[in-house]
Amino acid sequence: MHVEVRTDNHIQGSEKLFEEISDGLKDALKHHADQITRVEVHLADVNGPKGAANDKRCLMEVRLAGHQPIVASHQAGTIDDAVDGATAKLSRSLESTLGRLHDPKGPQTSIGGDQVI
Fold it and tell me: What is the pTM of this model?
């Protein structure tokens, strides 16, 4: 699994920050590592130098082999909190999506024949 971390021009990115994010993601997503080809992490300071509460945003995009990407984002007061929130959302979304894809009963449908998501 390849992890790319990008920041906007208001966030000071460092190798230590990038390694911590990459290691945390690899640990959180290790159950599906064989299906994930790439994870992109975008960090941004929404209000720039003006500052505000909950103005740090983390957007994560997971690329799965043969499937559409899954995206999750979270805003918080610090970069660490934003990354933790986005990681938790992404993990739940991956569990849900991959669980439906690999359900032994097949896709669930309603009485009208529409697929239940």
Answer: 0.77
Contact 4, 41 (CB under 8 A): yes
Residue 111: the pLDDT is 60
Tokens of 72: 């999750």
Across 63-88, b (16+ Cβ under 10 Å) vs e yields: bbeeeeebebbbbbeebeebbbbbbe
Polymer length in residues for the chain: 117
Class of residue 106 by CB neighbours under 10 A (exposed 0-12, middle 13-18, buried 19+): exposed
Place of tokens 């993601």: 25
Rounded CA-CA distance 65/108 in Å is: 23
